[in-house]
Amino acid sequence: MGAPDRVDGRTARAERTRTAIVEAHLALIAEGDLRPTGERIAERAGISLRTLWTNFKDMETLFEASGVEVLRRQDAAHRSLSPSLPLAKRIDAYCRQRVRQLQVIAPFARAAQMREPVSEQLRRNRRKHTARVRAEVEQLFAAELERAGAGREHLVYAVVAASMWPAWSMLRDGLGLGVEQSRAVLTRTVSALLTEVAGR
Questions:
Q1: Helices 87-115 and 59-77 sit at what angle, rounded to 10 degrees?
Q2: Angle 152-163/120-140 helices, nearest 10 degrees?
Q3: In which element (H, E) is residue 137 found?
Q4: Quick check: is 33 in a domain?
Q5: In degrees rounded to 5, what are phi and psi of residue 171?
Q6: Could you tell me if 71 and 162 lie in one domain?
Q7: Cβ neighbour number for residue 154 with a 10 Å cutoff
Q8: Interval 7-58: pLDDT, tens
Q9: What global pTM score does this model have?
Q10: Same domain, 27 and 104
Q11: Sequence-ordered list of residues with C-beta below 8 angstroms from that of 60, at least 6 positions apart, any chain
Q12: pLDDT category, 114, cuts 50, 70, 90?
């Protein structure tokens, strides 16, 4: 019994250490340190730099684990929306939810933008986010997308693009709009895209 217990204990400690590292990484980013070094991450996590790189062989593997945690946080803020609601209510609920999620990921998205050109893992993380938004759009607005006929794919792309971080960043950072103003613009954009086909 002793050996398995020791193994389980080591596994649990290793998992706690990995969790502490990921949390330290994300906390630093949330505080505005968009390119935290291994030294700063280790210091925040209360471990040695050697322990950091024992648990994560490089920044790419840390980006992967941190990306999983960001998705978990998004999931925690996500609520299922009914496709049976009237279109206007679906659009309003969808846009309000997207705003909550975009605000959750804001600092991490800004940090990722800086490193994504040289990080395949960050590009994979972005593709995961995009796929999840697309799946929600296709499920929630299935009836309207069906009416779009041959233009369905372009309509999906348009709604997804309007709902993603680059568009939100333009509203918030590029144009300097507040959260409520930005949400109103997002809602108007998605409404314009979907109500056009809803009346067909």
A1: 160
A2: 120
A3: helix 120-140
A4: yes
A5: -65, -50
A6: yes
A7: 11
A8: 577 888 889 999 999 999 999 999 999 999 999 999 999 999 999 999 999 9
A9: 0.87
A10: no
A11: 119, 120, 121
A12: very high
CA–CA dist 106, 169 (Å, integer): 8
User: Which range of residues forms the domain containing residue 50?
Assistant: 2-56
Question: What does the alpha-carbon distance between residue 128 and residue 133 come to, in Å, rounded to a whole number?
Answer: 9
Query: 């994300």: which residue's tokens?
Result: 26
Taking residue 72's Cβ as centre, other Cβ atoms within 10 Å add up to 9
104 and 175 housed in the same domain: yes
Q: Using an 8 Å Cβ cutoff, are 74 and 105 in contact? A: yes
- Which of 115, 108, 83, 90 lies closest to 169 in space, CA to CA? 108
User: What is residue 147's DSSP assignment?
Assistant: H
The DSSP secondary structure of 67-131, one letter per residue, reads HHHHHHHHHHH-----TTS-HHHHHHHHHHHHHHHHHHHHHHHHHHHHHGGG-HHHHHHHHHHHH
How many CA atoms lie less than 13 Å away from 177 in the CB half-sphere?
Answer: 15
Cβ contacts of 189 within 8 Å, gap of 6 or more? 162
Together in a domain, 11 and 96: no
Dist CA 77 CA 97 (whole Å): 8
Lowest mean pLDDT among 66-75, 134-143, 157-166, 184-193: 66-75
Who contacts 59 (Cβ-Cβ below 8 Å, separation ≥6)?
A: 38, 119
